[in-house]
Design goal:
By secondary structure, the protein is of the alpha/beta class. The protein is globular, with a radius of gyration of 26 Å. The chain contains 19 helices and twelve strands. The longest helix is centred in the N-terminal third of the chain and has 28 residues. Helix 4 packs across helix 5, helix 5 packs antiparallel against helix 6 and helix 5 crosses helix 19. The strands form four sheets. A six-stranded mixed sheet has the order 3-4-2-1-5-6, sandwiched between helices. Strands 7-8 form a two-stranded antiparallel sheet. Strands 9-10 form a two-stranded antiparallel ribbon. The chain folds into three domains: 123 residues, no CATH class; 101 residues, NAD(P)-binding Rossmann-like Domain (Rossmann fold, 3-Layer(aba) Sandwich); 165 residues, no CATH class.
Length: 480
């Protein structure tokens, strides 16, 4: 039986979407291209460093590509959907490390073959850990909006949770989850939501799964009684191979949550990594190593920026303002001065003559066209380079490379119940807010992003944010 509401124009698209081989093939090809370039680059670097690296010696290692693909598949790296960027980064690290360790062990055991450069292996391993996520991100950016990328998803429940999920999936097409229909028993919710049809009748879900070959469904009814959810799960468990149930746990951690069988009772172990000594030590060590190396590397650039600031306007090169730190401490966060010397007076005069902008200032503590900002300062803010001096704050332990956005005392009230989460960690030079739209987000969204970061922190999330920070700085998105 064909469902009339979905008959027109959707079957041809879904027929392609339900053939995952194309998406998987692209991921495999992308990985192989990245590995080829990384290993070629490793050999060139080793050659330039003075090592004798005959290329012919390494041509016989082409079967290693098959090992890579096999191991990556074993680490479930070719699942088109369902793997977040932080989790994917972790899997790539472990899978790549396993393959290179396997190759190194093989060359040690088989002594009759040619000698391979350990330096080249080490460079290739480090390069693959960095290049593979970047190449995969580039691939998803290119194909995200193609009709054949990802998998079709049926959303069961058209309430607030269901609509929020659809909005999120449409806003992040690179995840590969494409909502094609929403179902609900409430007739008042039927119609259309952001281009996705909303149909009446949760009982139609198995029919849709069969007729349109939809393999993924999300049961987005967290407020429904447990018995009702159990019935819906039973009705749909044989129709959808992948059925995700959204629990009534809004605001809880979503990454690094493990299901536990407690004598037949389902339990969710919520791991708060930032409360554990080991992960905190890793985070602090990462801050010190990267800040020390990076700080030394950018000293010439800091000198150039300082000269430009002094040439354009009077006043100091650096500017500091008190911020709220971990455990409710206070510290001075440093920045390059991006404003005129009498900035406060200029702001008050400007707001007095432009009262319509006072609401924007009171809401966001920022102005899109701030009259206090100098020309050099506008460039620094646009690229977020004005915050580079905060590397010193990170070295001192007042801040971290990645963390919540540093706030002033006046902003604490806006965090309401989330302020306790904020005070558990060091503020960050970069963070989820900075790579998720920055000034294009509302203040409530900033608080939500900061809370999400604290609840879901891991070193992989930090590395993912740092990689995205580079892209945001280069593209100057969301900053002004």
């Amino acid at each position: 039986m064909m469902i009339p509401e979905l008959a027109s124009g959707r079957r041809s698209v879904l027929a392609v979407l339900t053939q995952p081989w194309l998406c998987v093939t692209l991921l495999v090809v992308t990985d192989l291209v990245a590995l080829l370039l990384v290993n070629a680059g490793a050999l060139l670097i080793r050659h330039w460093a003075g090592g004798m690296v005959p290329v012919q010696t390494y041509q016989g290692l082409w079967p290693l590509a098959l090992v890579f693909v096999t191991v990556f598949a074993a680490f479930r790296l070719y699942e088109v959907v369902g793997v977040g960027p932080a989790e994917e980064l972790k899997r790539i690290f472990y899978a790549s490390s396993f393959v290179y360790l396997l190759a190194a062990a093989a060359t040690f055991v088989i002594r009759t073959g040619p000698d391979y450069s350990r330096g080249a292996f080490l460079i290739a391993w480090a390069g693959s850990v960095v290049a593979l996520p970047l190449f995969r991100t580039a691939l998803r950016s290119i194909v995200a909006k193609r009709s054949w990328w990802g998998v079709p998803v049926a959303v069961l429940g058209a309430g607030m949770t269901g609509r929020a999920l659809v909005k999120s999936m449409l806003a992040t097409p690179q995840q590969g989850l494409k909502p094609i229909v929403m179902l609900d028993d409430d007739a008042s919710k039927c119609g259309d939501y952001l281009g996705v049809p909303v149909l009446q009748g949760l009982s139609m879900a198995p029919m849709i799964a069969k007729d349109l070959r939809v393999t993924h469904a999300i049961l987005a009814m967290p407020g429904a009684p447990v018995e009702r959810l159990r019935i819906l799960e039973t009705q749909n468990q044989n129709a959808f191979p992948h059925l995700v149930i959204i629990p009534n746990l809004c605001g809880f951690a979503s990454l690094w949550v493990n299901a536990r069988d407690l004598g037949g009772v389902l339990g969710l172990e919520v791991r708060r990594n930032l409360l554990l000594f080991g992960p905190r030590l890793i985070k602090r060590s990462l801050d010190l190593v990267l800040c020390t190396i990076g700080g030394i590397a950018i000293l010439p650039f800091i000198a150039l920026v300082a000269l430009c600031i002094k040439l354009e306007s009077r006043g100091p090169v650096f500017y500091s303002q008190q911020r709220v730190g971990r455990n409710n401490t206070r510290f001075n966060a440093w920045k390059f001065r991006s404003m005129v010397e009498n900035a406060d007076q200029v702001l008050e005069t400007y707001l007095a003559t432009h009262p319509e902008l006072r609401a924007e200032w009171n809401r966001d503590h920022k102005l899109r066209n701030d009259p206090r900002v100098t020309r050099v300062g506008r460039f620094l803010r646009k690229t977020s380079l004005d915050e580079l001096p905060q590397i010193w704050n990170a070295v001192l332990g007042q801040m971290s490379l990645v963390g919540p956005r540093p706030i002033v005392d006046a902003e604490m009230a806006k965090y309401e119940g989330a302020i306790d989460l904020y005070l558990q960690v060091r503020p960050g030079i970069s963070g989820l807010w900075q790579v998720s739209g920055r000034n294009d987000t509302t203040y409530a969204e900033r608080v939500m992003l900061d809370s999400y970061y604290v609840r879901n922190w891991s070193v992989w999330l930090d590395i993912h944010i740092l990689i995205k920070t580079i892209r945001v700085v280069l593209m100057s998105r969301g900053a002004y």
